[in-house]
Amino acid sequence: MILGIGTDICDIRRIEQSIEKHGERFLAKTFTQIERDYCNSKARPAMSYAKRFAAKEAVAKALAGAETGALPWHAVEVRNDPSGRPVVTLSGKAESRLQSYLSENQSGQIHLSLSDDYPYATAFAIAEAVPAVRETS
User: Fold this and answer.
1) What local confidence, expressed as pLDDT, does residue 134 receive?
2) Among candidates 60, 125, 67, 62, which has minimal Cα distance to 93?
């Protein structure tokens, strides 16, 4: 069952300017160390940062409710699995928010798609409730 969807577009030039103006202060405030390590390993780090920025916004929108408020930047972490597919790890307030939408026989999953075409990066997120898998003895 779909709990929410979110999308966001980010101007890569804006991220380039923020990195140029604020440097590590901006990066450390907005991205986890894992995200920074990944983005900094790329030929054009700002493009990767912009996709992750858009992803954080899209996930926050997918998890938003009428009275939920903003999520901390580090509560949504974007990684890539071995095939390169983006995956989301939630913690803190973001994880609690997802859990609040689930019944005891459900688990939550975030599906994420990222894309870029300079000067824009986009993200689309779907929050889903799926039946919890029960272990058999």
Assistant:
1) 64
2) 60
Domain definitions of the chain by residue range: 2-131
Q: What's the CA gap between 48 and 92, in Å, rounded?
A: 24
CA dihedral 51, 77, 79, 60 (to 10 degrees): -50
* Homologous superfamily in CATH for domain 2-131: 4'-phosphopantetheinyl transferase domain (3.90.470.20)
Q: Tell me: the pLDDT tens digits for 38-53?
A: 999 999 999 999 999 9
Tokens of residue 94, six digits: 């973001």
CA dist 2 → 11, 55, 113, 127 (Å)? 28, 18, 16, 6
